Amino acid sequence: MKVVNYPYAGATAIELNYFKNRIGVQELATNNSLNVQFEWFKNIKPSLCKSEEECDNFFKKTLIIETITTTTNALIEEGAIELVVPGNFPIGCNVGILWRVNSQKKEDYDEFGCLITYNTFIEYYNEQLKKYIETLKQKHYQARIIYFDHYNIVKRLYQSPQQYDMRSFTSDKVKIMQACCGGKWPYHVDKNSC
């Protein structure tokens, strides 16, 4: 088994220059941002797999889902008989993500104001998780393994806020995407809180 792991204490997803230019932070614990770590990955990738097919097979295995299913399996083997495994929620509708991405392209958003690519990724992730859960159900027929559909439950809030007594949001779809207080339009996110 080949594993590559690049966690770096104090690393951020965004480059140091962003913090300097946007919010005046002059120093961080490290400047090994996600882009730097991605460059490390690209440099080592040729040693992980040689052909396109080999790389496809290697990267189809998702470590997060594998970890969730391994832990679920271990819990059942320890005697658990009822488990709830949650899927992920539509992160493309998350105010923090919307604020950070801040795309000016209308085509990046769906009709509810959510980022399409982020939600498409989460839909794919949730489908993969459901497949693994089905495999676990077949292996452990005596256990009750329930997939909690976080995604569609939360998505309904954005699609029909009036059905959930969120009347003040019905006239303006963007309002449901706002944080309660703090920052500027359109999402009212206070950068010091994120």
Mean pLDDT: 74
- Give the helix tally: 7
Portion in strands: 5-15%
Largest sheet, order of strands side by side? 1-2
Low-confidence stretches: 1-9
Describe what is shown at a glance.
The chain has 194 residues and is mostly helical. The protein has helices spanning 16-23, 34-48, 52-60, 63-77, 95-101, 116-139, 150-159; strands at residues 82-86, 144-148.
Detailed description of the structure:
Helices cover 45% and strands 5% of the residues. It is mainly α. It has a two-stranded parallel ribbon with strand order 1-2. The model is unreliable at 1-9 (pLDDT under 50).
Summary keywords:
194 residues; mainly alpha; 2 domains; two-stranded parallel ribbon; 7 helices; 2 strands; disordered N terminus
What layout of secondary structure does this protein have?
Blueprint (H helix, E strand, L loop, with lengths): L15 H8 L10 H15 L3 H9 L2 H15 L4 E5 L8 H7 L14 H24 L4 E5 L1 H10 L35
Parallel strand pairs: 1-2
Helix pairs in contact: 4-6
Protein name: GDSL-like lipase/acylhydrolase
Pfam families: Lipase_GDSL (PF00657)
Keywords: Glycoprotein
